[in-house]
Design brief:
Layout: E1 11-14, E2 20-28, E3 34-39, E4 43-44, E5 47-48, E6 52-55, E7 59-63
Antiparallel strand pairs: 1-2, 1-7, 2-3, 3-6, 4-5
Length: 88
């Protein structure tokens, strides 16, 4: 399997469509294809856009590690019990 070429939090642009944003996720397939979930910084109807998944070969790096990931939680995600205060 190949390693990922781009880091999470990097700002990138799709070479074909021109869609740009921040890498929020990465997926690696058994076939050796890496894809990246990119979310635009722009809002649509005051809400973030859905992620767009783009093949690694179609990505142009704008700025590596645009978003600092050092302050993210140690574990868990938005649905993790670790992210919510204990209930009474």
């Amino acid at each position: 399997m190949s390693e990922f070429k781009y880091n999470l939090g990097s700002e990138v642009k799709d070479k074909i469509t021109g869609y740009s944003g921040i890498i929020r996720g990465r997926t690696q397939y058994l076939t050796g294809c890496n894809t990246y979930g990119i979310q635009s910084r722009e809002l649509k109807d005051s809400r973030p856009h859905e992620w767009v998944w783009v093949d690694e070969d179609l990505i142009h790096l704008i700025k590596d590690k645009e978003i600092d990931l050092s302050s993210r939680p140690e574990k868990g995600g938005p649905l993790s019990k670790d992210q919510y205060p204990p209930s009474r």
